[in-house]
Amino acid sequence: MATAIKGKLLLDGTGGKPLSNPVILVEGDTIVAAGTADDVPVDPEAQVIDLSDKTILPGLMDAHIHLVGLKSMEDMAELIRTPPPLSALRTTVEARRLLEAGFTSVRTVGGPTAIFLKQAIEEGVVSGPRIMASGRSFIQTSGGGDPWDIPLELMEIAASLGRGLAETVDGPVECRKGVRRRLREGADLIKILTTGAVFSKENPPTRVGFTQPEIDALVDEAHRMGLKVAAHAHGTEGIRSALLAGVDSIEHGTYLDDECIELMLKQGTYLVPTFAIFKRVMDTAGDDVPEYAMRQGLQVHETHERNFLKAYRAGVKIGCGTDFVGPPPIEHGPNAVELVYLVEAGMTPMDVIVSATGGNADLLALAEKTGTITTGKLADIIAVDGNPLDDMQTLLNVPFVMKGGEVVKHVSD
Ligand SMILES: [Zn+2]
Predict the structure, then answer these.
(1) Which of 48, 31, 105, 38 lies closest to 374 in space, CA to CA?
(2) For residue 276, how far is its CA from the centre of ligand 1 (angstroms)?
(3) pTM across the whole model
């Protein structure tokens, strides 16, 4: 027996025209029909979920998060000290919070435990979003996120214990071996860093990382195994190297130039600007944020928005991701702020909705399963008061969440 969901307005995640008075029929975990009340007859026996005062959308997706159980931003080395089982337990709370905030799928791009959290969610042990996980990302020795204040010998021991956001590989041979290790662990994609980072004390965002042969080896090996590659890249040279190797998405992309934009258009590469992390960190400017991170954040911000807009207007595909890591001010929950920021940065509200749903589904390699409210897709459905096309802030308060046909949250008014 089907469940019928009745709404006031439907934004189906394809970018098509909003539909008034929609009815969505769900059988098991799947959408079997979606359309206007006239087009979709409802069996009188069907269970009806009445959301007729709400806007219905596909479950949101965050294309760039870290689920690592980190408690403070002050010291990234805490990630090395924290035993992975403790991190994993902490992330179960974050996973539930993400799901209740309307995020039915996420992509985790760095950190050791999300691969196992994903398994636990799929087994039904804990509740959370669908996860596409990269496992630990790849950097070269000394690269963005390699804490220089910890002796290299200790970092190598930590790495062998599976700890840390990233794993160090040097030279094409180690790069290929690293990708094969990730594959063996169960990674869904590969994450690499080709430049320094805003939150790296020693490596400013413009500094280059891997050599071209190393990036080529990482990307070629990943693609041979059928895995996409996400490249963290700020500086122009690092972005270009990643694009020349054929990565599938550029994360951040601060110093994109015209040549990079051209390559992205030609290769269909996504740009995931992750405004949320920079904005939240700068707006909060709390004591928790290290001074170097504040300074570097402010330095990149203006250029970032300008180059993003150039890429968007040229037609580059935009992914929606926050880069939230866990501790305040970048705690999981209000991840929909990225949609607000993307509108502020110049995207149309409809493009932003598509980016966070159908578009992200493509980026996450989930488009055949979910991302739009269309026949045959998994019933990942949310509903909000008001119309996000008029006010994106409405997505920060999601009273109804269904994942795979199961109602995980329904706050009635
Ligand atoms: Zn990140």
Answers:
(1) 31
(2) 11
(3) 0.96
